[in-house]
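Lab meeting, action items carried over

1. Structure of the two-component assembly. Owner: GW. Status: complete.
Input record:
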Amino acid sequence: MKSPHRTGEAQAGWLFVSPALTLIGVFFFVPIVVGLTLSLTDFDIYAIGDPSTARFVRLANYAHMASDREFWGALRNTLYYVLVGGPLSVLASLGTALLVNARLARFKGLFRVVFFAPVVTTLVAVAIVWRYLYHPRYGLIDAGLARLGLPVVDWLGDPAWALPAIILFAVWKNFGYNMLIFVAGLQNIPDELYEAARMDGAGAWARFRHVTLPTLGPTFLFVGVITMIGQFQLFAEPYVMTQGGPLRSTVSLIMLMYEQGFRWWRMGYAAAIAFVLLILVLAGTAVQLALRRGERA
Amino acid sequence: MSRRRASLGVHLALVVLGIVTIAPLLWMVSASLMPAGAANSLPPPLLPRRPTLEHYVELLTRLSLLRCFFNSLMIASLTTVVSMFLNALAGYAFAKLRFPGRDRVFAWLLVGLAVPSQIGMLPLFLVVKGLGLVNTPWGVIITGLASIFGIFLIRQYALSIPDELLDAARVDGASEFHIFRTIVLPLMRPILVTLGAFIFLGTWNDFLWPLIVLSDEKRFTLPVALASLVGEHVQDTELMMAGAVVTVLPVLILFFAVQRHYIRGIMMGSVKG
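Predicted assembly:
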């Protein structure tokens, strides 16, 4: 039986979602699909004035990519950043979450706010702050290292250290977010599980290993996926801190896309780079889902 | 005794970590108050010997960062107000209104959560250019007026609204929009505060898209202005730190004002998700 309320409700439902869906469709989903088409053309600065000058070039952009050393460098840098920075950031978050959530800890709310503060700061602004902190002569980080009798490092000036320095900065900037998510996950673990483990004579490490870690499984998956997606978007840090240098050692895929697309207006090629990035992100997500499923089986 | 030692260890670790976390922000403020050149001396000073506001004055007058501040404020406020409303409307409908195709559409939206927004940025630029909005604040605003994450956050919260409440109002003859406005919105206040803060912070802090859309210095948002300023004034540590303070302070204040809601909202979005 269909009541008048029901039909009114269905109409209202579509009416309520349509403004948001239209905007998301036009400004998010459609551009992604158009981007795929764009990556098969030689769309350039002339085509911006007159789109009819763009030609369909099939996979030429992707073929060019295969022989482009800039692209392979950016890919290498991005994967380094994701594969080293991601796990490091997750570990920092988990460690802090365990501390903040420790039964003994007091002022939990205060510490949570302090650790979360860098997350809400403006990336560009704090990247500039860190650029000065990393200064080899006047930076506080090297001053601290020197005081401790440790060797100083030209953090952003040495091609071997620039990317690790950016990773360190990004861990500082982001660990608070995942920390909160881990705290939420930890609070969801029933106390009885720990009690039972304690009764069985499990020590602190055994309880962590056999109770905390397994029950945090879904949280790990969530954190892993969102962290990876975030890491793949590396852009503002190198843009502000190193301009991609020294020796192009900090150019990321998004930065290359930005340079090719909006500085040189090679939009076809830039769209192809964006698509490779999308495939990497989706593959990375699929791998994490599969790993998680394998663990559970 | 060992319990006491454990407690001491936990608190020591927390305090050290807390100091390391907050130190860069404290140094930013401290350096912004140093006279020009003072931060570049050896050994690098921690505190200004003679605090001065000269860099703030210069930024806000000669370098017209004040205008960029208002650009940022306008763009972030407008985006926040409209986006909150549209996301609340959609999120509530996905949670509580029964309409054909609802779950399939929502599933598609969730797929979009895994796609970084930069992927479609080149065509997006052409769309915004086609609309004649390049180098205007509207070009920045229009792409942020609805967000999948916002809809998702609202939906998670709205699921807990009891159906009886809505049905009772329907029996009384209230229209769906009236129900949304008078019953649903007040119930969702906590999550609306979270979402509002989330959108405002995200828009205020955004960099790549405004960098692409805005080309006229007078229309820059603060992050874009700061990134361009550091190109010319890289030697002026104290001036740049004052610029960083002007950019970061508003969002930190907003965060401290709503941190309770905000932190709970983030934890909720993750756990139920």
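2. GW to write a short summary for the group page. Key points so far: The two ends of chain A are 44 Å apart (CA to CA). Residues 4-38 of chain A form the longest helix (35 residues).
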